[in-house]
Amino acid sequence: MKRFLPLLLVLVLVGTLEAQNNQIVVQAQGIKKMRVAMPTFAGPADLTTPTWAQIKKDIEITGVFELIDPKAYVSQAPVGALAQANLKDYALIGADFLITGSIERMGANATLRLEAAEVATGRVISRYAYRQPANILYGSVHDFMDRYLKDSLGLSAIFSSRIVAVLKTGGAKVLYTCWADGSAGQAIIKGRPGDLVLSPAWSPDGQRIAFVSYARGNPDLYLYQLFPPKITPLSTYRGLNSAPAFLPRERKIAATLSKDGNQDIYTMDLNGGHLNRLTNAWGIDTSPSFSPDGRFMAFCSDSGGSPQIYRMDLSSKSIQRLTFQGRKNSEPVYSSRGDVIAFTHMGADGRFRMAVMQADGSGFKVLHPDATIEEESPSFSPDGRLLVYAGSDGNLYICDLYGSKPVRITSDGGRYSQPCWGPVVR
Amino acid sequence: MKSLKVYVILSLFLHTAFFGAVIFTASRKPRPAYDIYEVSIVAAPLPGYQTQGRSVEPRPQVPSRAAKGFEQIAKAQAVKDKAPSFKPIDLENASSRSKAAEPPEMEEPEDRASSSGAYPSAGPSAGARVKVNMWVAEVQATFRSVWQAPYGVPIKKDLKASFTIRVARNGEILSKQLLLGSGNILYDKSVELALNKIRKLPPPPIGGEAAADYTITFIPPAGS
User: What is the mean pLDDT of chain A?
Assistant: First the structure.
């Protein structure tokens, strides 16, 4: 007992001192997502069921919320409004937030009412209503989810943004867009059998998509202006014109060209003018991506013997190698915050997986080391918290940077590749 | 007199033209940027939904030299006038910050620390120290029971959020305020949400004051 006396004394003293200064430190015992309860919505089932399912999927996509299994709720009855809910029931199951909803059909239109409250206090944090054609309620859900993210946790919008990808359909590869949760997917350029479209990239303002097409038999760069719809050739030099990426602060685009014999990265104006060569090394330099402040360019080069990720300081043109792990590292993308670079990593087992590192090359981490499917072509969400990527099963997935289970946003697998997440569109 | 008439008529004409132009300009709403995405439907928006009249046939067009090789490009124009607005509408004129329902009654911690055990301000006795220590431990346990670090925050060693809470002698939390944010809004919000779950702490073993302020600092789990 005497042995523990000094320790006891120290503990008593520390506690006393803490209280005397009125300072108390609380250390978390773990990490958890915010827990959301969402009973079924009130209204016609053909409208409420898919809307509820879409919000459930969006909650999973956020990366910060998790939906409490409805089987755990005290009552399984639909709850159309917060006023009808007994918050105590949801506090008992550990819910932080409660979302209720109702849909009322009005001819071809429908009125969707969605509410969210903080369970502990009963404070309403989001209350919105939408009147829309019944077949496009998904747009209202995107708007609500973005507002809910902001109202509840102060996070930036992600759902009012689009993803562009390559869709394999009818023997051709065409451009495809869908909303961030995969809803309302559609081909935006319909190709003939054999057409090949690759490497789509959104412009920072969301008004243009650059892409590679073999429409004229050569891999050329095109610019697809969304409004009014118009496609113009951007770079049609002999040889390879590929891997377009917009510069964040200038009306310029970077791409890999082989017009001078070697595959190097160039920048050019949006009309293809003012060509400027950025890299000039032996080997292939490709997949440029720019830091949001426009100071750095990450890219992939095999000049060191295998494809690895490098970073160029655009003012001094000095180049630093960032990756040394595994067999290959490619397709780097800067997050919109500029602090993280995501990329495709091939480990010793020869499988492609998502990986991230700090922008200086430190903190290398494979996100899903035990994933059964391979992963490639990452692209960051507008707020830089999430990634969309293509799985080897031909579906698009969204994941966070902390290794939780990815959410599949397409259902008809075997068809999607090379996603690029665009900015939020209001 | 005649020239005055001319001036009056001219003035009326100019005013009418000016206000007409203003009204015309104001009535022309800018086209929402997302109109452009409403193109011909290849995939249904959602399973179970009908695309009543929304399917849009692409407009025939002569492929430009620039777009040679593509059979057609997207047709935003065809549906732009019917493109929906996803902005919420004010159906009920409801306040978005009102109380929805009575909040649940939260479980309150047992009052295990005695208020009569408060120590004098001149200096705590050994017994009072033990009581204070026990109280601190109870407060820590109370907050730990409702707060865990939020998922989705890059955990760093210096990550911490400090809140000032005012505690009444009976342990009731009278107010709470963010004193020093962590720099991560999600982290700070998680603490705020946790604080909202606690209405009453064990009565603090202090004497002489009706209420006291405490600074509670929330730090990430060990080893993270």
Answer: 91
How far is CA A84 from each of CA A79, A105, A357, A360, B46, rounded to the nearest angstrom? 6, 20, 47, 52, 28
Beta strand A31-32 pairing with A23-27: unpaired
pLDDT band at B128 (very low <50, low <70, confident <90, very high): confident
* Residues 6+ away with beta carbon under 8 Å from A275: A266, A267, A268
DSSP B71: S
**What is the pLDDT confidence band of residue A333, given thresholds at 50, 70 and 90?**
very high
Q: Which chain A residues are Cβ-neighbours of B67 within 8 angstroms?
A: 222, 230-232
pLDDT at B43 over 70: no
Which residues does chain A have within 8 Å of residue B88's beta carbon, measured at their own beta carbons? 128-130, 140, 143-144, 147
The pLDDT tens digits for A200-233 are: 999 999 999 999 999 888 999 999 998 888 899 9
Chain B hits for A24, Cβ within 8 Å: 136, 139-140, 214-217
Q: Which of A200-214, A320-334, A378-392, B14-28 has the lowest mean pLDDT?
A: B14-28
pLDDT mean over A315-343: 95
pLDDT attached to residue B99: 47
Q: Is the ipTM of this complex over 0.95?
A: no
Q: Residue B214 corresponds to which tokens in the numbers above?
A: 């405490």
Secondary structure string (H, E, C) spanning A210-269: EEEECCCCCCEEEEEECCCCEEEEEECCCCCEEEEEECCCCCEEEEEECCCCCCEEEEEE
User: Which residue from B minimizes the CA distance to A131?
Assistant: B89
Q: Please state the rounded mean pLDDT for residues B119-131.
A: 63
Report the half-sphere exposure of B150 (CA within 13 A, side-chain side).
26
3-class SS of residue A352: strand
Least trusted range by pLDDT, from A6-10, A244-248, A353-357: A6-10
Q: What is the per-residue pLDDT across B129-177, written as a single tens digit (0 to 9) for each?
A: 788 889 999 999 999 999 999 998 887 778 999 999 999 989 999 999 9
pTM of the model: 0.79
Using CB atoms, which residue from B37, B92, B133 is nearest to A12?
Answer: B133
Q: Which residue of B has its CA nearest to A49?
A: B48
CA distance A100 to chain B (A): 11
Contact residues, chain A, for B181 at CB < 8 Å: none
Side by side, the strands of the sheet bearing A172-179 are A186-187, A172-179, A161-169, A416-424
How far is the alpha carbon of B114 from chain A, nearest alpha carbon, in Å? Answer: 16
Which amino acid is residue B39, in one-letter code?
V
Q: Using CA atoms, how far apart are residues A396 and A419, in angstroms rounded to an integer?
A: 7
Residue B154: closest C-alpha in chain A: A402
CA pair distance A64, A264, nearest whole angstrom = 40
pLDDT at B223 over 60: yes
Q: Note whether A147 contacts B105, CB cutoff 8 Å.
A: no
Cis? peptide before A228, omega within 30° of 0 = yes
Pairs of CB atoms within 8 A across A/B: 308
- Whether A26 sits inside 8 A of B140 (CB atoms) is yes
Fill in the amino acid letter for B109.
P
**Of B32, B91, B152, Cβ closest to residue A64:** B152
Calpha distance B161→A305 (Å, rounded)? 47
Whether B148 sits inside 8 A of A30 (CB atoms) is yes
Q: CB–CB of A31 and B150 under 8 A?
A: yes
